Amino acid sequence: MTERKYFGTDGLRGPANSGIMTAETALKMGMATGTLFKRGDYRHRVIIGKDTRLSGYLFENAITSGFLSTGMDVFLVGPMPTPSIAMLVKSMRADLGVMITASHNPYQDNGLKLFGPDGFKLSDKTELEIEHIIQNPNLITFAEAKDIGRATRINDAPGRYIEFIKNSFPKGRRLDGMKIVIDCANGAAYHMGGKILWELGAEVIEIGVNPNGTNINLNCGSNHISNLSKTVLEHEACLGIALDGDADRIQMVDECGKPIDGDHILALIACYLKKHNKLINNKVVATTLSNLNFERYLNSQGIEVARTQVGDRYVASKMQELGLSLGGEQSGHIIIEGCSTTGDGLVAALQMLALIQEEDKPLSVVADIYDPLPQITRNVALTDPMVMSNTKFLKAIKNAEDRFNGKGRVLVRKSGTENLLRIMAEGEDLALVNSIIDEIASHLN
Fold first, then answer.
1. Is 331 a catalytic residue?
2. All residues at 6 or more sequence positions from 165 whose CB lies less than 8 Å from its CB, including other chains
3. Domain boundary among 155, 173, 189
4. Which residue segment(s) compose the domain that 200 sits in?
5. pLDDT in tens, 73-129
6. Per the residue annotation, which of 55, 84, 103, 325 is the catalytic one?
7. In this structure, are 40 and 147 located in the same domain?
């Protein structure tokens, strides 16, 4: 694949106001993408949302200017979950959707996620075409003065999305009698996550719902669930739900405060859909990071697993390719065909609540389906961007993997969202797993 300057695993991402994540980049991105997606003689429209980062104002104004200059009309929806942008693009017959977010990263970072008119994230091919236009500005088509786009702020977007999410819950069912803690990570779902659960009948305890521009994901949300576990125990709640900063991923804790990761959530939803004859071809899509025992469990339930590379857009692409109805990641991106075209933490949460109700058992019992193999991931600062092309380093990885003797695996990859090298090892012997990670990491010093 051609080396990309701007796009990573999930759109653009980096430290705000430096590197690639500047107002200039956002402006160019708006102009290039607007040029590429103007495909007819009509008023084109783009939906732009953001999470709660302070830098969101900076990028919102810059990319809006870029789109307006190409003649695209812009509809601004303010702080909204990433999957709501995917939904609104289709609902409002827009040509594009943009989410300004760095997902689970700290507030100092920001990014751009782009959606096409079908509600799916852009393909690698389309991203390369956008980069080509950015690097060749003579290709940008500016609108005449009379055709410059208009920017409009729409206020009913949250209500539209709330009703969309509620409609994903089984018709006629309610959450009465359930006490639920939800952690919205001081992020994009802060004003709607708890409301959805409450309107469905639950007693709700909300945390992570006071964004101030700099506290998104700070010791809260799906990457920091210790406070969620503590709150569940304090309030004797049925369970806890944790979203990340843009609400496209979910982690949970049971009534005992024990974490339930994305693999378990995906496996449980897969079995639930299979039970109701809604799991197409009895097959799900997962990534290379999903635990081996996750796959073994699903196989024992008559469900196949197709693997793809890390990133929920690759999961969605594989689902489309194979015509499947469910896919997800260990990190908590869960995609359910008919409900979402990208990871949606709130849709996944309601599916989990529906199956827990149906089982009429505590989450600790429902989720006790398999014990994951020991799996460790270590993040190492990426000082050499070409390290994955280094023959000596690749040989070190192969030698380390050989130590498993067929009873484990190693996955080393560059992060698509941060300047890190991620070293993952999985096997039956935890001591050996740690030793192998140490061995690989030692070759990076």
1. no
2. 192, 196, 344, 346, 347, 350
3. 155
4. 161-258
5. 999 999 999 999 999 999 999 999 999 999 999 999 999 999 999 999 999 999 999
6. 103
7. yes
